[in-house]
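Below is how a single chain appears once it has passed through the pipeline. First comes the sequence as given, then the structure the pipeline wrote out for it. We keep one example in the README because the format questions we get most often are answered faster by looking than by reading.
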Amino acid sequence: HQGVIAKVKPAKQYNENDLGAIVDATDTPFLLILDGVTDPHNLGACLRTADAAGVDAVVVPKDKSAALTPVVRKVACGAADVIPLVQVTNLARTLRDLQDAGVWIIGTAGEAENNIYDCKLVGPMALVMGAEGKGMRRLTREHCDELIKLPMAGSVSSLNVSVATGVCLYEIVRQRG
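Resulting structure:
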């Protein structure tokens, strides 16, 4: 006992029912969707970067995805307490609902024809990043309005998902700014 008491309140758990209010709260919603990112370090880093870039919420599927664990919270350095992490049951349905609300869905894929730097990335949008090693699932890919890629000049074929997320988010921030 150190003579210290702390009063804490658990972070709010967000689900698909909360997403509409988050989107409606701004004229130009900016969302990050992580399709099957399972590494808690990557989720924490993505939350931290999303908060720094001004993302309104991060959306993840309930299944086959990292959850908000103590490791995620530590890596996120406080971002997990301020940015909504929305867990959805059906990601494909969520993407359709976002499209119906006027949100443009931008997916990332190494085989995409469009380079991120050649695309117009303004207005209401959601950036979709795929899982480590696997990328986006087929249904997620099919629900994207546009697919983009990062140019790769070296000998490696891809970047870590949290690094690629940072590059993509800040290109969107640059264009929206």
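The longest helix spans residues 161-176.

See the next section for the split statistics.
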